[in-house]
Design a protein that fits this description.
The chain is 28% helix and 25% strand. The protein is of the alpha+beta class. Strands 1, 2, 3, 4, 5, 6, 7, 8 and 9 form a nine-stranded mixed β-sheet that branches. α1 runs antiparallel to α2. It is globular and about 60 Å long.
Length: 364
């Protein structure tokens, strides 16, 4: 398993330009327009870039640019996160997640009510993002499949901020809004949407051109040890799951792999049920695999394990797990069991899973 990197993230400076062109060019191989976009956005006074460093080396980059929602009462200034780049040799090490978390923190400090991006909904859902359509915001172009227009509402968000998302003109001038041609067709097929943005026929599930797991792989439905057992998380676990994590908020936030404080949050049991339904749909559609962790005797919920795509290529997984505070002693055994399971029974080329060490179970 690739060990997670711990990059230092800071604002970009003019001296980073050459390194950024190299990182972005290799991250977006075959898409030279993204390098041109970064050069142009860097000249805007309403756009801010941040670089990820490992040692003295630039290994990743993210940018926030002012855009707008065309709401009925007035235009609302928001931020668009684009581009996000990680050097290929550093992908799958948690750098993209760290850059996204840093950008969100900067957006909060700037007072933005929301941040938007174009991206894989299965990946960004694990970071707390949701389809912009749930906020009443429509994509700036029909060439962005609706599920791929992702939003993260911040404390300044208000329900009346509904309408079309309007990108800054630089994105349009360089034709960097949405997809075209075969890439658009593949994205629509993968996400199960049509050219109008509606869902495709559920009886004809989409084929992902770059699947998380190989087509012939059958995801395990259980993992059993003397201390716990795993089974796919679903709506039937809602009340027990909700009781487990709401009793352990601070403990979970101190658990390795939960660094940004975005979850656990203040959601209701009804919102939790919606989240569990999404996880079950992801499992069925092979977009991600979430397991509840149960006591083998009482079947009480002990915790949860999440296996979702890692940015940086197919067949790479980002794994997170937690246990409730009253069973903190199982955090390290769970990590060990799941790590071995992933290596033995899953088809991933790389896995990022925050390491536990003896003594970590004492953080309750």
């Amino acid at each position: 398993m690739d060990a997670p990197a711990n990059p230092v993230i800071r604002p970009e400076v003019p001296g980073d330009a050459a390194a950024l062109r190299d990182v972005i060019g290799r991250a977006f191989d075959g898409e030279p327009e993204v390098v041109a976009l970064e050069d142009a956005l860097a000249r805007r006074s309403d756009s801010s870039g941040y670089v990820a460093l490992v040692g003295e080396r630039v290994v990743g980059h993210v940018r926030l640019t002012r855009s707008w929602i065309d709401a009925e009462p007035r235009l609302v200034e928001v931020l668009v996160l684009s581009p996000l780049s990680v050097a290929p040799e550093w992908q799958g090490r948690g750098i993209g997640r760290a850059l996204v978390a840093h950008a969100v923190t900067e957006a909060e400090h700037a007072g933005a009510p929301a941040v938007f991006l174009e991206g894989d909904p299965a990946y960004y859902a694990r970071l707390g993002w949701r389809p912009a359509s749930e906020l009443g915001v429509t994509p700036p172009s029909a060439r962005i499949p609706e599920p791929a227009c992702q939003a993260l509402p911040l404390p300044g968000w208000e329900p009346w901020m509904r309408g079309a998302l309007v990108y800054a003109e630089t994105f349009w001038a360089l034709d960097c809004v949405g997809l075209r041609g075969d890439r658009l067709s593949r994205a629509r097929e993968s996400l199960g949407t049509t050219a109008s943005g509606s869902r495709a026929d559920d009886d004809d599930p989409p084929m992902d051109p770059d699947p998380f797991v190989p087509p012939g792989f059958v995801a395990p439905t259980s993992l059993q040890t003397p201390q716990f057992r795993l089974e796919p998380l679903g709506p039937r676990h809602n009340e027990a799951d909700y009781a487990a994590w709401t009793s352990s908020v601070e403990h979970i936030r101190r658990t390795p792999g939960w660094p940004d404080g975005k979850w656990p949050d203040g959601r209701s049991v009804t919102d939790n049920l919606r989240d569990l339904r999404r996880h079950a749909e992801d499992f069925e559609n092979r977009r991600g695999f979430t397991y509840t962790v149960l006591d083998p005797v009482t079947a009480d919920v002990i915790g949860c394990v999440y296996i979702y795509p890692e940015a940086g290529g197919p067949h790479r997984a980002h794994v997170q797990s937690w246990v409730r505070a009253s069973r903190a002693e199982l955090d390290v055994p769970l990590w060990r069991a799941v790590s071995g399971w992933l290596e033995a029974d899953w088809p991933f080329d790389g896995v990022t899973y925050a390491e536990r060490k003896p003594g970590d179970e004492g953080t309750a």
